[in-house]
Design a protein that fits this description.
By secondary structure, the chain is mainly β. It folds into two domains: 30 residues, no CATH class; 228 residues, Jelly Rolls. It contains two helices and 19 strands. The radius of gyration is 19 Å and the shape is globular.
């Protein structure tokens, strides 16, 4: 009987692959409590250009590709236009995509060939609060370049949006670097903490967006996510083995470098 129970347990439990730098057990797809999130990255904005960049893969996506972007953040400033993550800067008319907090605290989700004549944008009707963590996901459906193919989720709920622009008709593949926490050319730096950023090679469904958090509404272990096969990059933003010289990609080797940041910016403040 003992051997039978051991065999049954072996079918239910699976140990996480060490390549992710994680450990834990999965029980029917639910990650056990051994998964922990203890740090985020603190961005100061302002005069210094505090960003995470120098990624080898800029995550360029064409205008008809399906993809998704997910980040948890706590902004500490209001009335400030601040980029959370994106791969477009003003040097190439903002070609690429970006997830931004506008100066009215609404979320802006952009995909551009060039500003101001060739781009798609949706903006949330609701604003996000300061000094609390929020989870924002931008999704893009495949097969279309219309603004209607773009959605925003705030804390795993689909947000009502308005269309800021719907004129995209040319390539969105540019040469600008991927950055977390601000643009280089014109600032737009983020003020506050950013945590658990991930990029996906598909439009996440509502249920897949929900699975980005655990049952307590905290960041989930993406190694157990139902769409893990479509996970392109995942940065935990401070948890070991991250350091002030390298933010590691837990899905591959697309590691980032903190720029103008210091050891204290690995901050024990998390969702």
């Amino acid at each position: 009987m003992k051997h039978i129970l051991v065999s049954l347990l072996a079918l239910v439990y699976a140990t996480q692959a060490p390549a992710n730098g994680l450990s834990g057990l999965i029980l029917k797809g639910v990650v056990s409590s051994s998964y922990s999130n203890t740090y985020s990255m603190l961005f100061g904005g302002g005069a210094t250009n505090e960003v995470v960049s120098n990624f080898s893969d800029q995550f360029n996506r064409e205008r008809t590709d399906g993809f998704s972007v997910s980040c948890w953040f706590k902004k500490t400033a209001t009335g400030v236009y601040q980029m959370v993550i994106g791969n477009n800067v003003s040097g190439s008319a903002y070609r690429g995509w970006s997830l931004v907090v506008q100066d009215d605290d609404q979320i802006q989700w952009d995909l551009l060939n060039g500003y101001p004549d060739n781009w798609a944008q949706v903006v949330t009707s609701a604003s996000v609060s300061s000094n609390v963590f929020v989870h924002v996901v931008g999704t893009k459906a495949s097969g279309s370049s219309a603004a209607s193919s773009m959605k925003v989720y705030i804390n795993r709920s689909a947000a009502a949006t308005t269309t800021g622009s719907d004129s995209l008709s040319a390539t969105t593949v540019g040469t600008d670097p991927l950055r977390i926490g601000g643009r280089a050319a014109d600032g737009n730096n983020f003020f506050g903490n950013i945590d658990e950023c991930s990029l996906w090679n598909s439009e996440l469904t509502p249920s897949e967006v929900s699975a980005l958090a655990d049952v307590n509404g905290k960041p989930a272990n993406l190694a157990a996510h139902p769409a893990y096969a479509n996970l392109a990059h995942w940065w935990r933003m401070g948890d070991a083995p991250d350091s002030i010289t390298q933010i590691r990609d837990r899905r591959g080797t697309n590691h980032g470098t903190p720029i103008d940041m210091e050891a204290g910016d690995i901050d024990p403040v998390v969702p």
